[in-house]
Amino acid sequence: MAALNAIAREWADELREGIAWVIVWKTGRSWNAQAVWLNCDDDTFEPEDLELARKVLEQDPNAVMLNGYYCGHFGEDMTAAELAAGIRWHYDNGYNQLDGSTAFPAEPELRPEGVPADMPWYGKPTTEGPDPYAYDGCMSPEDYEHMHELMAADRQREDAQQAEHPPTMDLTITLTPDTAAALLDAITPQIVKFWESVRSWVNEAAKALGKLMAAIGKAAAEAVNNLVDAMLYNANDRPKWWHLYKHAKKRRTRKKYRRLLMKQLTRKLAAASG
User: Fold this and answer.
1) Which of 104, 53, 39, 37 is nearest to 239 (CA)?
2) Which among 35, 71, 124, 257 could disulfide-bond with 244, CB atoms 3.0 to 4.6 Å apart, if both were Cys?
């Protein structure tokens, strides 16, 4: 139970917040856990998490997949020990098992016999074209590579057409003396206004110069923050943490994942120095 309590403490924030799903499984007498974030479009595993989920099931067919919002026996104010008891309840009773979860995407459809061999086949029904820069497993590696070859050929063909027939435009303007006089009358107020704007800008620039020194101090602080962010990014083993630190809608969520990234960096620095 001590190992399960340790897992509950490590993933307590994820279980309480109810955004991520925490996969829990056993190998022998050891407990293991990993948080995953489902695709926001269809609530299925991301490709890298899909591979993890399949490996987990090979190790433990009774693994569970838990979320503090959707699954019972969890709450925002629970202690780590209470969260551990909730995990144990789900695992022992076979609730919310990973096997058969709807988070697994549907298996890709096989290529129909009538589809030409040189045409890439995407085996997932969709109203939009697949993202060509994210391999989701619904195409064979050969079809995925061939799709990029076709895209490159299309780009080369378009570039060649533009080079051969560059866009051109002819423009002829004829001004009579009366038109020229009317044009001058029309633009003179704008010229005066422009120079007044220049003079105003010079005055504002002089005022801004006084604020420059204060801005230098702010820039120095920002440089320190950028340095810390660079260290957090390079020491991070969990891309989702970085994503939520930078892009979560709630400030509380961003602050939480920055704290997790700092703890991770501190552990690695301590290990390196020890």
Assistant:
1) 37
2) 257
- Phi and psi angles of residue 26, each rounded to the nearest 5 degrees, phi first: -115, 145
pLDDT single digits (tens) 237-269: 888 888 888 887 778 888 888 888 888 888 888
The span from the CA of 232 to the CA of 251, in Å, is: 18
3-class DSSP state for residue 21?
A: strand
Q: Looking at residue 251, what is its pLDDT?
A: 82
With vertex at residue 171, the alpha carbon angle to CA 168 and CA 177, rounded to the nearest 5 degrees, is 170
The whole-number pLDDT of residue 187 equals 78
Tell me, yes or no, if the pTM score tops 0.70: no
What's the order of all strands across the beta sheet hosting 64-66?
Answer: 30-36, 21-27, 64-66
Structure tokens at 20: 């991520």
Distance CA 267, CA 35 (A): 19
Transcribe 61-77 into DSSP letters. TT-EEE-TTTSSS--TT
The beta-carbon contacts of 245-253 under 8 Å, at least 24 apart in sequence, are: 253/17, 253/19
Which residues are CB-neighbours of 252 under 8 A, at least 6 positions away? none
- Provide mean pLDDT across the span 198-221: 72
Ramachandran region, residue 137 (left: φ > 0; alpha: ψ -120 to 50; beta: rest): left
CA distances from 57 to 27, 36, 89, 105 (A): 11, 15, 19, 15
Radius of gyration of the chain (CA): 30
